[in-house]
Amino acid sequence: MSRIISIANQKGGVGKTTTSINLAACLAASGKKVLLADLDPQGNATSGIGFNKDDLSPNIYEMLIQKAAPEDTIRRHPFIKNLHIIPSNIELVGAHNDLHDDPRKYFKLKHSLQKLLANHNFEYILIDCPPSLGILTVNAMIASDDLLIPIQSEYYAMEGVSLIIKTLQKIRKKANTSLNLFGVVLTMYDMRTNLSRQVEEEIRKHFTGRVFKTVIPRSIRLGEAPSHGMPIILYDLRSAGSQAYIKLTEEVLERYGRK
Amino acid sequence: MSRIISIANQKGGVGKTTTSINLAACLAASGKKVLLADLDPQGNATSGIGFNKDDLSPNIYEMLIQKAAPEDTIRRHPFIKNLHIIPSNIELVGAHNDLHDDPRKYFKLKHSLQKLLANHNFEYILIDCPPSLGILTVNAMIASDDLLIPIQSEYYAMEGVSLIIKTLQKIRKKANTSLNLFGVVLTMYDMRTNLSRQVEEEIRKHFTGRVFKTVIPRSIRLGEAPSHGMPIILYDLRSAGSQAYIKLTEEVLERYGRK
Ligand SMILES: Nc1ncnc2c1ncn2[C@@H]1O[C@H](COP(=O)(O)OP(=O)(O)OP(=O)(O)O)[C@@H](O)[C@H]1O
Ligand SMILES: Nc1ncnc2c1ncn2[C@@H]1O[C@H](COP(=O)(O)OP(=O)(O)OP(=O)(O)O)[C@@H](O)[C@H]1O
Ligand SMILES: [Mg+2]
Ligand SMILES: [Mg+2]
Fold it and tell me: Exposure of A214 by Cβ count < 10 A (0-12 exposed, 13-18 middle, 19+ buried)?
């Protein structure tokens, strides 16, 4: 039984990659077999957990344009044995033009992951999306069971939310009837400011019942961890950021009715 | 004599919009006639300085697809008389498909701004770009004299820089020989962390002579200002964020040899 989760929000810098990496690492460290798919040409998820994105071929781009079998793109994390990744790098920008005239262009990722799941029993596949609602993020949402939206506790973050919800509804109608809004997680929350509290109030009102109780605080250690190529639980386990992602993982598992 | 400046970086959330709004406002408040063009479908620059993006037609999308004359898209700021804006909203996402088969698709903005400058004497035109290197940002770089790159003082920010420099070089070779790397500005600098210092050292080494001396500190007031629809000089003039953007404006004017 496998769940595929897209971590998406077209607003930039809201914590998509940080949430993808740390939720994936925490799930893996809780004994779940996890695959993290980096679907951003920036390759931040790939480098953020310590891989060198420029010498990993085949990668997700070659998988999407069917130059490589999905099997062959999977790498195992050296320290966290249940954690695997499909790496990305700048070549992925090419997907846009390569797939433009292909009638199946929006279903490429879905087909690849289906092939992959025939041979691997990943319990969770997390997809880190780029900051746009273009062909890559649409591919992710069509391939997924669930959508997780990180929202920064800042003003602009609220403006963009209706956009991704509209996209979810459109995809649900046209291409993936079972795509579910799994939840919203507030990130970079600064306890000292009214702004964070106001945004939280507004978001909880707008998404009644779908906002995780756990809020990820702004924490310097979370910003430092990727420069060491580590998820936060390996970089500074007892930091506020790490404790928050551990709590979020517990909430995620509860929502799935699993321990 | 007019200068057109693109404010771009495909990494999300690095302070492109915050720099566009506040540099535009400070230049206008220094007596320069300024136009801020919002080229992001999120419309953050439009709402960040107090306009309602969903009831401003015609906007930049209609200008790009030539449904509206450039003249007709300009709005004047109610409080800062030298500041004007071409607003944006979600319709701009449509530009991608609308222009896809048009051989002049990458020159639309350049043509519109040239028409506009025939009748208006804007001294500075600032273009706020979305977090990608797609058709919109390419249009901006082809239309521009200068490129200003905000870089967040964080780990991932360094990874993406080579990408936008490659794009600059490609555009300079193929479409805009005079496009100049005007400068790099460090944003969200946190004096308390080593990470910010390390990123600053790395960036100043990498871009010798092109990084502005002024560094924009992380400042809660900068994050609050857009929720009041104001640039920082109207929201909290004596805050650290405001003082930094005033200093940056002085440096920008010095580089242009103007007072
Ligand atoms: N809770 C946090 N506290 C402090 N820093 C954070 C936190 N979450 C993320 N960051 C930092 O903020 C920056 C933006 O986060 P991240 O890159 O995860 O966002 P993103 O949504 O993936 O960005 P993009 O839109 O470019 O893909 C990064 O430098 C990251 O290290
Ligand atoms: N110096 C700063 N101090 C504190 N907060 C800041 C600062 N600069 C920007 N911010 C806040 O950080 C968030 C990201 O900034 P901004 O939206 O300007 O980035 P961007 O690069 O335009 O993002 P996008 O990639 O989505 O276009 C916003 O909520 C903004 O208010
Ligand atoms: Mg990311
Ligand atoms: Mg922006």
Answer: middle
Predicted confidence band at B115 (pLDDT cuts at 50, 70, 90)? very high
Task: Chain A: give the shortest CA distance to residue B216, in Å.
Answer: 17
Secondary structure element (H or E) that encloses residue A26, with its range: helix A16-29
Backbone angles phi, psi at B123, to 5 degrees: -80, -35
Identify the residue whose tokens are 């009831």: B55
Nearest CA in chain B to A12: B12
Burial class of B30 by CB neighbour count within 10 A (0 to 12, 13 to 18, 19+):
middle
pLDDT tens-digit map of B67-110:
999 999 999 999 999 999 999 999 999 998 899 899 999 999 99
Answer whether A38's CB lies under 8 Å from A64's CB. Answer: no
Residue whose CA is at the smallest distance from ligand 2 atom 16: B15
Contact yes or no for B7/B127 (Cβ under 8 A)? yes
Identify all chain B residues contacting A230, using CB atoms and an 8 Å cutoff.
Answer: none
State how far Cα A80 lies from the chain centre.
18
Phi, psi of B197 (to 5 degrees): -65, -40
For residue B53, what is the nearest residue in chain A, using CA coordinates? A159
Record: contact A159-B42, CB cut-off 8 A? yes
HEC letters along B74-117 = CEECCCCCCEEEECCCHHHHHHHHHHCCCCCHHHHHHHHHHHHH
What pLDDT sits at residue B259? 60
Question: What band does B159 get if pLDDT is binned at 50, 70 and 90?
Answer: confident
List of chain B residues whose C-beta atoms are within 8 Å of the C-beta of residue A100: 100
A217: DSSP letter: B
**Measured distance CA(A16)–CA(A217) in Å, rounded:** 14
- State the sign of the Cα–Cα–Cα–Cα dihedral A161, A164, A166, A168: negative
In which band, very low, low, confident or very high, does the pLDDT at B222 lie, cut at 50, 70 and 90?
very high
Nearest residue (by CA) to ligand 1, atom 10, is A223
Kindly tell me if the per-residue pLDDT of B189 is higher than 80: yes
Span A17-28, mean pLDDT?
Answer: 98
Vertex B28: Cα angle to B22 and B30 (nearest 5): 105
